[in-house]
Design goal:
By secondary structure, the protein is of the alpha/beta class. It is 55% helix and 10% strand. It has a five-stranded parallel β-sheet with strand order 3-2-1-4-5. Helix 4 packs across helix 5 and helix 8 packs antiparallel against helix 9. The radius of gyration is 16 Å and the shape is globular. The chain starts with 6 loop residues before the first strand and ends with a helix.
């Protein structure tokens, strides 16, 4: 990773949200480097982890000390899944940003002082970076909401109102 693009570690949830909105491919238009722990890639079915690797997601294996950090996090934070704690441990120990749509994992990241963003941040970045038209992202956000993504309704409605008026 010899480029200067900021590195973002993804969990399972962020990919599931993007899949629900049919916009997984747009994630790779952002000027960031995307990585995921091998355990996250292995558990992804829809979207398929190997397909994400083919698109540009970089898989990382955690070191022994990073796995020990996962064990410590597991004791501290009961709600996030263990695989997702691998993403937090990787982000925390390497100074990367965590991308997750899971509110419990976001809370754990904040508790650990790790920068964290969610699905709506990704959508905002896609608009800001002009990686996709805002009205298309409004359609994607509507799909995510209809398919059960747990996004804050008020924040979604603000974006939908703004993005559906843009052409």
């Amino acid at each position: 990773m010899g480029n200067s693009r900021q590195i973002h570690v993804t969990d399972t949830n962020i990919w599931i949200d993007l899949e629900k909105g049919s916009i997984v491919h747009l994630m790779f238009r952002l000027p960031i480097s995307l990585v995921a722990p091998d355990v996250i890639v292995a558990e992804l079915r829809k979207p398929d982890g190997n397909a994400l690797i083919d698109m540009g997601l970089q898989m990382m294996e955690l070191s022994g000390s990073q796995v020990a950090e996962v064990a410590r996090l597991r004791q501290e934070y009961k709600k996030p899944g263990t695989a997702d704690l691998f993403a937090l441990a990787l982000a925390k120990t390497r100074g990367f940003v965590l991308l997750t749509g899971d509110k419990y994992l976001r809370a754990a990241a904040r508790g650990e002082g790790t920068p964290v963003h969610g699905t709506l941040w990704v959508l905002d970045q896609l608009v800001t970076q002009q990686a996709a038209p805002a009205h298309e992202l409004a359609v994607a956000l509507n799909k995510m909401m209809k398919k059960g993504s747990r996004l804050p309704r008020f924040e979604c409605e603000k974006r939908l109102s703004l993005w559906t008026t843009r052409r």
